[in-house]
């Protein structure tokens, strides 16, 4: 071992011993090397958006460079006494403690210098527009920077205050996914620190096994410190359309019609309108005056409605009349009479629409509350049964939060990545369903929350038996994970053995156990 390497290891050993044995708040390197920036105020790292799971780590690392992360992981993977685990934390918008590390170390990725470098096609040797962006940066930061170059990523999430590394670890889906695939289908290259502390630049042609492992890999194989993401010309404006339905079959048929027109349509989503609250919550960002007053009770039965939203990009540089496009597309839809609304908004406001919803919920004290969310991929053949199952298990009148439903196309997913879709290979169309429930702690105390979580378990259990898969999966037993990955389990476990053999990374996912060097 070289002297510098030895010093670095000795240094981190002292740090870790001090960290786990003393109540100090901030530990400076005693050996004059770059100090690792450890903190022991671990409150934020023990919590996430879900507000359901709370695991306190022993310390937080605020890294200044990938080298800091590498130093920590090299030490832990070489140390025979240690059983310390490590979780990267992006924006902490997980639901079930996925970015937490009980008694371990949480690496706060937002501490890394935010670097966003945009490269435009045609400049120098560049043959496709792309951006190099740090793993801890937020998608909103990337949007703001790329728009300065009139460029933008092709595939998004609905909410942009999520980190690049956090969404690339799970997939990253929104209404553009039918056209461009999830965010993980739009990555050209990654810089990763593996569980063994190796710093690797990987791509489909270079260290490709690591590249595909990490994409959708639930943080199990390495920590993404930088990503190279495809960009396209950004439109200035968006024509944003919403249409209402009272019949689920027509709703899903029209959604499938829309995704069959990728040359005309740029975004397709949809949601169930369960009650007045769900109708109103979705109009916060959509600046149209709706003259839709649905009857949620009819003939003694409760009734729900459905809303499709689609969007068409408006580029001033392209000679396309977007009003005509919207008219042509909308003419083919079979929504309720006169229940189709079109607005025009800036591209930035369209992509950042959930922020307005967040602000409104924050001001009502309804953002920092428990969120027993459930997200599933359901094959097209099972979507109507799944919607029935959902509606049987929730009380539509009282439900708070959106229930999203929209189709994506299986062939836009790269099967080499770690993410799994339902197996029903004959269904090219797969629906993503997100039951994004908020609970009000006054009306839903702890036992009520537990009941909701039990309901989620019933729904995911029954749906999984019928071939659905959880998105952003959460399983509390090894058997659950085994069944989630199904025929992909051996590949997933093999990748773990290759890149994080001691099971140091992302313990909050609860997939693998930590092992020490001596037990391996
Ligand atoms: P964290 O919660 O910090 O981490 C999530 C997981 O990724 C953890 O296991 C963590 O260890 C790991 N991780 C974090 N950073 C890295 C890294 N740099 N390298 C390796 N592993 C890392 N998802 C969608 O697909 N579409 C949506 O439209 C969407 N909308 C959402 C809206 C809201 C309001 C919320 C709260 C969530 C939404 N999500 C959506 C889910 C979200 O994409 C995931 O929960 C995502 O993982 C959150 O990113 P984060 O940066 O907060 O990750």
From TrEMBL:
Pfam families the UniProt entry points to: Cytokin-bind, FAD_binding_4
MF annotations from Gene Ontology: cytokinin dehydrogenase activity; FAD binding
Signal peptide (UniProt feature, chain positions): 1-26
Single GO biological process annotation from the record: cytokinin metabolic process
Top-level EC class: oxidoreductase
UniProt entry keywords in alphabetical sequence: Oxidoreductase, Signal
EC number of this enzyme: 1.5.99.12
All residue ranges annotated as the FAD-binding PCMH-type domain in the record: 53-234
Family recorded in the similarity comment: Belongs to the oxygen-dependent FAD-linked oxidoreductase family.
Protein name per its UniProtKB record: cytokinin dehydrogenase
């Amino acid at each position: 071992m070289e002297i510098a390497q030895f010093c670095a290891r000795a240094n981190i050993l002292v740090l870790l011993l001090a960290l786990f044995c003393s109540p100090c708040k901030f530990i400076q390197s005693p050996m004059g090397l770059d100090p690792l920036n450890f903190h022991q105020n671990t409150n934020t790292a023990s919590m996430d958006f879900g507000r359901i799971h709370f695991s306190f780590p022993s310390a937080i690392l605020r890294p200044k460079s990938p080298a800091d992360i590498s130093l920590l992981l090299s030490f832990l993977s070489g140390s025979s006494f240690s059983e310390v685990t490590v979780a990267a934390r992006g924006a902490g918008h997980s639901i079930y403690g996925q970015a937490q590390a009980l008694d371990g170390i949480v690496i706060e990725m937002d501490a890394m210098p935010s670097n966003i470098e945009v490269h435009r096609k045609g400049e120098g040797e560049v043959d496709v527009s792309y951006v190099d962006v740090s793993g801890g940066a937020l998608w909103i930061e990337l949007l703001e920077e790329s728009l300065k170059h009139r460029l933008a990523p092709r595939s998004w999430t609905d909410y942009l205050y999520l980190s690049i590394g956090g969404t690339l670890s799970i997939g990253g889906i929104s209404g553009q996914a039918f056209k461009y695939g999830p965010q993980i289908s739009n990555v050209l290259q990654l810089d990763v620190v593996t569980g063994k502390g190796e710093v690797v630049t990987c791509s489909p042609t270079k260290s490709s096994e690591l590249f595909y492992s990490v994409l959708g890999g639930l943080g199990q194989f390495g920590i993404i410190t930088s990503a190279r993401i495809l960009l396209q010309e950004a439109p200035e404006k968006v024509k944003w359309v919403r249409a209402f339905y009272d019949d689920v079959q027509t709703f899903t048929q029209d959604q499938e019609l829309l995704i069959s027109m990728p040359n005309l349509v740029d975004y397709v989503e949809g949601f169930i309108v369960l009650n007045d609250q769900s109708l109103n919550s979705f109009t916060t960002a959509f600046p149209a005056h709706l003259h839709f007053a649905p009857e949620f009770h009819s003939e003694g039965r409760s009734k729900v409605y459905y809303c499709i939203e689609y969007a068409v990009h408006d580029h001033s540089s392209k000679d396309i009349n977007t009003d005509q496009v919207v008219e042509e597309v909308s003419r083919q839809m079979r929504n309720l009479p006169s229940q189709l609304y079109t607005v025009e908004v800036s591209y930035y406001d369209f992509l950042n629409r959930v922020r307005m919803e967040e602000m409104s919920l924050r001001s009502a004290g309804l953002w920092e509350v428990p969120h027993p969310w459930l997200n599933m991929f359901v094959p097209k053949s099972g979507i109507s049964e799944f919607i029935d199952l959902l509606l049987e298990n929730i009380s539509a009148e009282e439900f708070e939060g959106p229930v999203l439903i929209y189709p994506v196309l299986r062939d836009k997913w790269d099967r080499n990545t770690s993410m799994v879709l339902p197996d029903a290979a004959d269904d090219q169309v797969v629906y993503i369903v997100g039951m994004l429930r908020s609970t009000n702690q006054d009306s839903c105390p702890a036992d009520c929350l537990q009941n909701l979580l039990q309901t989620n378990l019933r729904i995911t259990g029954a749906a999984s038996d019928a071939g659905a898969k959880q998105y952003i999966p959460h399983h509390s037993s090894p058997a659950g994970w085994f069944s989630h990955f199904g025929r992909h389990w051996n590949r997933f476990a093999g990748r773990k053995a290759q890149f994080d053999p001691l099971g140091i990374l992302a313990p909050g996912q609860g997939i693998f156990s930590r092992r020490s060097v001596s037990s391996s």
